[in-house]
Write a structure and sequence with these properties.
alpha/beta; eight-stranded antiparallel β-sheet; five-stranded parallel β-sheet; binds zinc ion
Length: 443
């Protein structure tokens, strides 16, 4: 058994599946999905009760299946219940968010963890990662968190030279090791990598070339990408894998992908993008909720899981030559704040920051002032802003968002507040280090 890299299909594609014709791909997918559902019915009492009779001649055979929600997972997995477990294999218990009401778990057998490495290898390969590339792994470890140990194993299996820093290594030590070993690739949560690089700057430590930032766990926005390219000369800023711990890898980027656009792993997961108002599949270009059926998970089969992210299929071909369909990820369906009657999406804020060449490390918060809604935009930045600068920014915001300005003119909401904060001062998830992007008002 050599490194995973050498299992590649050709110099262009990791798997032969990535360059199949649409007809062959569709045939392959349908056979696999059918086999998966048959296995669910054979081994899982939970699905025997839950799944209706499926018409396999239908273009969308799972439309009649009740979506599996995050709540369903919590109620049917240990420690509360074992209804979703469909095999006797041993497993590793990971925590999948959910800080209130006890841990929410996700279980993976050893075999599933190995298969997951292969899915990630497809993303590494598509982004030009080579055996013996030195890679620094900055994902969070401990607290039953999955990504660090998964990526650690991936890097070993793929054939990279692996540096398992995790997310609590002292900053000067990181700098020293990265310089001595000339580590050109960093992997981790985007906001944590940015935090490390900004600390290097603050401490006036020597700069060195970084070629690739392979991020995961949360989206990275245009303003962050610009900072990485301008400040550090990074050549590739991309996500080798998009997925969720409750499901599987759902997509991967290639060297031609723009931010937020992914090739679908549609042989490993059956992906539906659903308009939840009509219950129908979305047309190409129409945004909807992502539902996945994880054809690789047999310990706890997952059929039609509502991932909670919004996306749309682009319907376009990728210049890289892969035929796997492209989708654009729009982030969490709940990454919005309702200010008066205006629903402000976090992506809108990121567009605004990028247009004004501001740092992308930002958080929006809803406040109540004298009974009226107010929007507070917190931006982490080393730059200083005068009152005049801030006023001009607010004017630009109102100009970009007439609906918000109209509510303000009618005195239905309070004026926008913008606060410039010290780097690393905004609230982050203590377990994963991810920036908390949206803070809703709590009664
Ligand atoms: Zn591509």
């Amino acid at each position: 058994m050599g490194a995973l890299f050498y299992q590649k299909h050709s110099d262009f594609f990791f798997d032969s599946y990535e360059c199949l014709s649409v007809k062959d791909r569709t045939f392959f997918q349908r056979q696999k999905l059918k086999k998966y559902i048959e296995n669910c019915l054979e081994y899982s009492e939970f699905y025997r009760r839950r799944l209706p009779k499926i018409d396999w001649s239908d273009d969308f055979p799972l439309l009649g299946v009740e979506p599996l929600t995050s709540k369903d997972l919590r109620e049917n997995l240990p420690p509360f219940n074992s209804n979703l477990i469909a095999s006797k294999e041993a497993y590793t218990v990971f925590q999948s968010g959910g800080t209130t009401g006890g841990p929410k778990t996700s279980l993976f057998s050893d075999e599933e963890l190995e298969k997951l490495n292969k899915a990630n290898a497809r993303g590494f390969f598509a982004l030009g990662v080579k055996p013996h590339d030195p890679v620094a792994d900055f994902f969070a470890s401990g607290s039953l968190y999955m990504t660090f140990i998964h990526i650690n194993r991936c890097l070993q299996k793929y054939g990279c030279v692996n540096f398992p820093f995790a997310n609590h290594t002292e900053i000067e030590f990181i700098h020293k090791v990265v310089s001595l070993f000339q580590i050109g690739t960093f992997t981790g949560v985007a906001s944590y990598i940015l935090q490390i690089l900004r600390q290097f700057d603050e401490l006036k430590l020597e700069k060195f070339p970084i070629k690739k930032i392979l991020f995961g766990g949360e989206p990275l926005f245009e303003a962050d990408k610009r900072e990485l390219v301008q400040n550090w000369g990074v050549e590739v800023v991309a996500a080798p894998g998009y997925g969720t711990i409750d499901s599987w890898y759902i997509g991967y980027q290639c060297l031609k992908s723009s931010l937020g656009v992914f090739h679908a792993h549609d042989d490993e997961v059956y992906i539906e993008i659903i308009n939840e108002e009509t219950g129908k599949p979305c047309a190409v270009g129409e945004a909807g909720m992502v539902y996945v059926t994880t054809c690789e998970r047999s310990l706890t089969p997952i059929v039609r899981y509502r991932v909670g992210d919004l996306a749309y299929f682009t319907g376009k071909d990728c210049p890289c030559g892969r035929t796997t369909p492209l989708f654009k990820l729009l982030g969490r369906g709940d990454d919005t704040l309702r200010i008066g009657y205006d629903s402000i999406d976090y992506n809108f804020i990121q567009d605004f920051l990028a247009e004004n060449k501001l740092s992308g490390t930002a958080q929006i918060q809803k406040l109540k002032i004298s009974g009226r809604d107010a929007l507070l935009l917190n931006i982490e930045s080393l730059e200083t802003f005068s009152e005049d600068n801030l006023s001009r920014l607010k004017e630009k915001f109102y100009h970009k968002r007439p609906a918000f300005y109209e509510l303000l003119s009618k005195k239905q909401i309070e004026p926008l507040q913008i606060k410039i904060c010290e780097p690393n001062s905004l609230k982050r998830n203590p377990r994963t280090g991810k920036l908390i992007r949206v803070l809703d008002y709590e009664e």
